[in-house]
Amino acid sequence: MSFTPASILITGGAGFIGSNFIHSFLANNPGCRITNLDMLTYAGNLKNLTDVAENSQYRFVKGDIGDAALVASILVQEKVDAVVHFAAESHVDRSITGPEIFVRTNVLGTQVLLEESRRHWQSDVVTDFRFLQISTDEVYGSLGDTGFFTEETPLAANSPYSASKAGADLLVRAYHETFGLPTLNTRCSNNYGPYHFPEKLIPLLIHNIINKKPLPIYGDGLNVRDWLHVRDHASAIEVVLKTAQPGSVYNIGGNNEWKNIDIVNLVCDLLDSRLKREPGENRQLISFVKDRPGHDRRYAIDASRLKNDLGWEPEYTFESGIAETIDWYLDHQEWVADVTSGTYLTYYEKQYGERP
Q1: How far apart are CA 166 and CA 168, in angstroms?
Q2: Are strands 82-85 and 130-136 parallel, antiparallel or unpaired?
Q3: What CATH topology corresponds to 7-195+229-255+295-316+344-352?
Q4: Catalytic pick among 116, 138, 169, 257
Q5: DSSP states of 86-102 as a string?
Q6: Number of Cβ within a 10 Å radius of residue 163
Q7: Over its length of 356 residues, how does the chain's per-residue pLDDT go in tens digits?
Q8: Hey, which of 9, 56, 84, 331 would disulfide with 80, CB 3.0 to 4.6 Å?
Q9: What is the rounded distance in angstroms from the CA atom of residue 32 to the CA atom of residue 22?
């Protein structure tokens, strides 16, 4: 099956994964129009997209995915034939202290997008259509020491964040089964790479090491995650969008299982060298803290369906990807400073004359 979108609505495109996808997709598909709808919450940063801001094929719209009238107008005006839905509240810790916004954005916001997409698709404005839900392996819950998540693994979310994403995934399935809407769903492992908001593990480590701040590690540090470079993720999404059968679900993984403490030690050692510090100096910053509630022990993705059906495999090893990521953050300290100080929020005001 081959699908070539002419006009894509991307939600949450100012965030980490969304902005990387926009860079990648515009480079690979110069004739495709992209509309980026983003509310610009704390994790949305238009500085992630300065390189494409003047591209005639790119348009930014500040707005809420829960605004049905706005979503409908974009779908019609831009003759959108694909929605790639990244927009989400995504930080587990924040979902524990304030779960309401996760339900509002991740569940109710997704339902609005689905309903307006259904109306648009059934109106015959476009001849073909796709709705691609970007989800997470966290919807599957936790693994033991062995085994892998497959697309048939039952959903067993353990945090308010993952529960809200599981709810959205089920709505996507329901709109396909009930209305025939041509939906797709991807579930990825932990992402890392450029433009990652520095509250997440890897960019937080890099930032704190540079500034000689403590490196807080939950519990015993032996929780395991499967890591996926964000550029590999972007390429996989493009393959799924263009070639997958509607109704399909695909896991996307990097084949890189690492214990948290091993990642911390690796980043410490690489930055010892790059910052010309004594070997082992950065490891002295490690501080173990009380584990968070509902902290899943292990995630591991079986992405063989994606390889077998669509021919996709990751290009990055974790060792090559983490080294490149560290160098990117060292080379983009102004971007990091803007984010950590909050001054990145004024970029929208300078561009559009108002605060987000």
Answers
A1: 5
A2: parallel
A3: Rossmann fold (3.40.50)
A4: 138
A5: ------HHHHHH-THHH
A6: 22
A7: 689 999 999 999 999 999 999 999 999 999 999 999 999 988 899 999 999 999 999 999 999 999 999 999 999 999 999 999 999 998 788 899 999 999 999 999 999 999 999 999 999 889 999 999 999 999 999 888 889 999 999 999 999 999 999 999 999 999 999 999 999 999 999 999 999 988 788 999 999 999 999 999 999 999 998 999 999 999 999 999 999 999 999 999 988 899 999 999 999 999 999 999 999 999 999 999 999 888 888 989 999 999 999 999 999 999 999 999 999 999 999 998 898 888 888 777 777 666 54
A8: 9
A9: 11
Sign for the CA dihedral angle at 121, 32, 65, 187 comes to positive
Q: Is 348 a catalytic residue?
A: no
- What is the enclosing helix (H) or strand (E) of 70? helix 68-77
Give dist(CA 131, CA 149) in Å, integer.
23
Question: N- to C-terminal Cα distance for the chain?
Answer: 40
C-alpha–C-alpha distance, residues 169 and 186, integer Å: 9
Catalytic residue among 64, 137, 232, 238: 137
Q: Give the pair of three-digit tokens for residue 305.
A: 């369906």
* 285's tokens: 């910053």
| Residue matched to tokens 């831009």 | 78
| Residue 138 is among the residues annotated as catalytic for this protein | yes
The residue from 140, 161, 192, 316 that is catalytic is 161
Burial of 29 per CB tally in 10 Å (0-12, 13-18, 19+)? middle
Are 43 and 16 a contacting pair, CB within 8 Å? yes
Give CA–CA dist 275/332, Å, rounded: 15
